[in-house]
Design a protein that fits this description.
The complex is a heterodimer of chains A (441) and B (448). Chain A is an alpha/beta fold. Chain A folds into two domains: 6-115 and 156-436, Thiolase/Chalcone synthase (Peroxisomal Thiolase, Chain A, domain 1), CATH 3.40.47.10; 117-151, no CATH class. Chain A is built from 13 helices and 16 strands. In chain A, the strands form four sheets. Chain A has a ten-stranded mixed sheet with strand order 7-4-8-9-1-10-16-15-11-12, sandwiched between helices. Chain A has a two-stranded antiparallel ribbon with strand order 2-3. In chain A, strands 5-6 form a two-stranded antiparallel ribbon. In chain A, helix 11 links the parallel strand 11 (326-328) and strand 12 (358-359). Chain A starts with 5 loop residues before the first strand and ends in a 5-residue tail after the last strand. With 448 residues, chain B is of the alpha+beta class. Chain B has a single domain, classed as Peroxisomal Thiolase, Chain A, domain 1 (3-Layer(aba) Sandwich), CATH 3.40.47.10. Chain B has helices at 22-31, 79-95, 129-137, 148-153, 171-180, 195-208, 226-234, 275-280, 312-325, 343-357, 370-373, 380-394, and strands at 7-16, 19-20, 36-38, 51-53, 116-121, 186-187, 214-222, 265-274, 287-296, 334-336, 396-397, 421-422, 427-433, 438-446. In chain B, a hairpin with a 2-residue loop joins strand 1 (7-16) and strand 2. The longest helix of chain B has 17 residues, at 79-95. Chain B has twelve helices and 14 strands. Classes of the chains: A alpha/beta (441), B alpha+beta (448). Chains A and B meet through helix 3, strand 6, helix 4, helix 5 and helix 6 of A and helix 3, helix 4, helix 5, strand 6 and helix 6 of B.
């Protein structure tokens, strides 16, 4: 018996460009940007003071059956609940819930919660002993117990989005959360896909959720010089694959999908939106600070995914095109990522690489870190459905060393059957998914 | 149909409050030594429990656990990373695996790098308090609060450029992958105390689907820091104790008068290999990872501070693992539960075990290790799995301390204090349950 096929039957997202599948897609097609000055905290003096924040009109409570049991929910889980509700409803589970909650699993790439920064820093400062150059434990305990609230702390744990989704949707099957930096939700979807293939579940809710738009998040990335420090209109700051690219722009939000065993989906009359056919994971095992310069790890992930999908990267279809019609790039807009990702795609696809359109939606909605892979995976499915490719915004000064087709500035009509979505994490974990048009055969 | 790829455990490496390596832990468990002590990094007496389960200050010199060429990188290792790197070193040596870390081997390694995976569970790594606070203190307002404006314009320059890389949870796997050259699938599961067993289960799946032949797998975390202890308190997992108490008397797994646990540090990395591949390289093969199961509990309070009263989720994970292993509950010889000494978690676990094992639950020896390890979060399941492996290898059950008298254990389980003893052990179940409601269980089987 062959392993079961796995299809996507629902999806949803919450991003700086909105929180409906179609609404965000329209704005991606118009090459719009979600970037603006940071409002979550006073960032004016930071080297980077802009980001792609989820806008104030998003209220997670409007997505919930019972908002009371999620009263203390932090931002990550709020985004996740909003996105998951869209996916759940699209899959039809709001009217016909899954029969056996133990056959429904969860696999997320969700980030750690936002520190209660002012109180955290204030408690530390108040306990600082300048003579010993150490924090006094007893003084800190006193300050922390007075200033840091219990549930606010607990809600920062990285598995809390799981807890909230499980509670809201009554999920009792296997549940995991991974946090492989910027690759997390691609990995989560890949592992969720693998679990259905193995028979561990019939339905998996999967995706990612994250915000790092907080003082220590911006501090950390600024110190690593990973963020754009563009001076001027923030909507022009994210410039993947450009000569003048100077780092990524932070985004935030969530992408969630419902993966389902094909037979299970068809038996209940659900409509498959697309089929997942390949997943590859690898590690650079090179350096903490740098990507392996030949793109070894990235190429290994792409190759592993293609191999599982039984797609020959050197082959062409009856229409003369490569078998992969679109690549949703990791495309962060850092010097290093964009050049090595380009190299890796060439290593895998050789001469064919130039004929595969590859764009970065991070140019429009920023880098959702752990959640980036999920929204980019969804973009592939929407490209298949609409026959349109999202552009790379702000692609006005191409880097001559980067010579692939980055779909510059304007969305493009293109018949799309099969796509790959790439995610590469800080620390060298790489993941790729292959998704294709669902065909009843 | 291709034959099922069986997975064996060929190496174990632990770090825990009683030392680095299984030898120190095993000795402590046989003799009933506790890992609890006063914290040597911070005075924790401002919390309800002043004790922690922490390695002694001189017990981990990280430079001894990395190849010479990698010593510089130890500067960007948070405590959790150091503990993981040391555990991986121990595990690889225990397995007799030659990796890139053996510089004298000059590239003659046991496994191709692309066949080596790495799945290491992690927690939220706490920022080193002193390092960050000296920087914060440079940007304070007149009334001692953080001045964000000053922090953004200048204060942040006082932290090292690579600061963030010390604290990303995936850095445990990243460093271990670099040291041992694991270029295959790599993951970082962050599900509280269930992380390590979920990682071990995932490694089993990765090997099962032939994405790797060998995985360094497990979990590591240090909760022995100010934020770690605070969150233990806030999640109602911290015992109540005073400085005058005997530290070894505080954690009392399944004891009717237990008051809670304490923050611990450590975890374990295990070497998981595909059976034929392990045989081919001549590994010593004693234990098979025969089954894995996972589930999500219903959390009445949503976030899972309170345990699931009937233990249904935990029981479901154990039953799934037993089913995969093809093992009947009647064939299980011992169980390593979480056994953290938090009354409602102990009661929930006991309920789960009763659901699975019925009346026999009072006769299946529990192996309780939290007295030695404390709650080392994402690392706990790794230590628990390693201890189970060691029990199968040695055909011995360790001592249980602070369990009280026979017959008085919570939920009627076999948790009373007892000395170490020989035992015929073929099948052991290991299970954990986490804050947030994730459960995971594995079944280990002795093979000859």
């Amino acid at each position: 018996m062959s392993e079961p096929r796995v299809v996507v039957t629902g999806m949803g997202w919450v991003t700086s460009l909105g929180h409906t599948v179609d609404g965000v897609w329209k704005r991606l097609m118009n090459s719009e940007s979600g970037m603006a000055p940071i409002t979550h905290f006073k960032a004016a003096t930071f080297p980077t003071s802009f980001a792609a924040e989820v806008k104030a009109d998003f209220d997670y409570r409007t997505f919930l059956n019972d908002p009371k049991v999620h009263a203390t929910t932090a931002l990550n889980a709020q985004f996740a609940l909003g996105a998951a509700r869209q996916a759940w409803n699209q899959a039809g589970f709001h009217t016909h819930p899954p029969k056996d909650p133990r056959r429904v699993g969860l696999y997320l790439g969700a980030g750690e919660g936002v520190l209660d920064f002012d109180n955290y820093a204030g408690a530390l400062i108040s306990a600082w002993d300048a003579t010993t150059q150490k924090v006094d434990g007893v003084r800190w305990a006193k300050a922390a117990l007075a200033r840091l609230e219990a549930l606010k702390e607990i809600e920062q744990e990285p598995n809390m989005s799981l807890a909230h989704l499980a509670r809201e949707f009554g999920i009792r099957g296997p549940a995991s959360n991974c946090l492989t930096a910027c690759a997390a939700s691609t990995q989560a979807i890949g592992e969720a896909f693998s679990m259905i293939r193995r028979g561990d579940a019939d339905i998996m809710m999967s995706g990612g959720t994250h915000t790092m738009i907080h003082p220590l998040g911006v501090t950390g990335f600024n110190r690593l010089t990973a963020l754009s420090t563009f001076k001027g209109d923030p909507t022009l700051a994210s410039r993947p694959f450009c000569m003048s690219r100077d780092g990524f722009v932070m985004g935030e939000g969530s992408g969630m999908v419902i993966l389902e065993k094909l037979e299970h989906a068809l038996a209940r009359g659900a409509t498959p939106l697309a089929e997942v056919i390949g997943y590859g994971s690898s590690a650079d095992a090179f350096r903490i600070t740098d990507i392996q310069p030949e793109g070894r790890g990235a190429a290994a992930a792409i190759n592993a995914a293609l191999q599982q999908a039984q797609i020959d990267p050197a082959a062409v279809g009856p229409d003369g095109r490569p078998l992969i019609h679109y690549i949703s790039a990791h495309g962060t807009g850092t010097k290093e990522n964009d050049s090595i990702e380009t190299r890796a795609v060439k290593v895998v696809f050789g001469e064919r690489a130039k004929h595969i359109p590859m764009s970065s939606i991070k140019s429009m909605m920023g880098h959702l870190i752990a959640a980036a892979g999920a929204v980019e995976f969804m973009t592939c499915i929407l490209a298949i459905q609409h026959g349109m490719l999202p552009p790379t915004r702000n692609h006005h000064d191409p880097d001559p060393a980067l010579d692939l087709d980055y779909v510059p500035n304007v969305a493009r009509k293109c018949a799309v059957d099969t796509c790959i979505s790439n995610s590469f994490g800080f620390g060298g974990q790489n993941d790729t998914l292959v998704v294709t048009r669902y065909k009843n055969s | 149909m291709p034959q099922k790829r069986r997975v064996v455990i060929t190496g174990i490496g632990t770090t825990s409050a009683v030392g680095v390596g299984m030898e120190s832990l095993w000795k402590a468990l046989l003799s009933g030594q506790s890992g609890a002590k006063l914290c040597h990094t911070f005075d924790m007496s401002g919390f309800s429990c002043p004790f922690v389960a922490q390695l002694a200050a001189d017990q981990l010199d990280i430079k001894q656990f990395v190849p010479k060429s990698y010593r510089k990188a130890t500067k960007v290792m948070a405590r959790d990373i150091e503990l993981a790197v040391a555990a991986a070193h121990e595990a690889v040596n225990d397995a007799g695996l030659i990796t890139k870390s053996h510089e004298a081997a000059d590239g003659k390694v046991s496994m191709p790098a692309t066949q080596m995976g790495c799945q290491i569970g992690a927690g939220s790594i706490a920022a080193e308090e002193n390092e960050l606070t000296v920087a914060f203190a440079s940007s304070q307002t007149a009334d001692g609060e953080i001045d964000l404006g000053a922090w953004g314009s200048s204060g942040m320059q006082n932290i090292t450029p690579l600061w963030m890389l010390k604290y990303l949870p995936n850095m445990l796997a990243s460093h271990v992958s670099i040291i041992h050259d694991c270029q295959g699938p790599s993951n970082t599961i962050t599900c509280g105390e269930a992380s390590a067993l979920l990682s071990i289960g995932e490694s089993m799946r990765v090997i099962g689907r032939a994405a790797a032949d060998c995985c360094l797998s497990g979990g590591v975390e240090s909760k022995v820091n100010l934020m770690g202890v605070l969150r233990q308190l806030y999640s109602k997992r911290l015992a109540t104790a005073s400085l005058s108490d005997d530290p070894s008397s505080i954690i009392r797994p399944f004891h009717p008068s237990a008051t809670g646990g304490m923050a611990g540090e450590g975890g374990a990395i295990l070497v998981l290999e595909e059976l034929e591949s392990a045989r081919a390289r001549g590994a010593k093969i004693q234990v098979e990872l025969a089954g894995f199961g996972a589930s999500q509990s219903f959390c009445q309070d949503t976030v899972g501070i309170g345990a699931e009263v009937d233990g249904a989720g935990n029981a479901q994970a154990i039953e799934t693992a037993l089913h995969e292993a093809g093992v009947q509950p009647a064939d299980v010889d011992a169980i390593v539960p979480f056994g953290c000494g938090v009354p409602d978690i102990d009661a929930s676990e006991a309920a789960a075990l009763r659901k699975v094992f019925g009346e026999r639950v009072s006769k299946i020896p529990l192996i309780t290790i939290s007295t030695a390890t404390g709650n080392c979060g994402a690392g706990f399941g790794g230590v628990a799995a390693s201890v189970a492996v060691q029990c199968l290898r040695a055909q011995k059950l360790p001592a249980r301390i602070q369990g009280g008298k026979a017959g008085e254990s919570v939920g009627g389980v076999d948790g009373a204090s007892i000395g170490a003893r020989d035992a015929v052990l073929n099948t052991i179940v290991v299970s954990t349950t986490s804050l947030g409601g994730q459960n995971a269980a594995i079944v280990l089987r002795r093979i000859s």
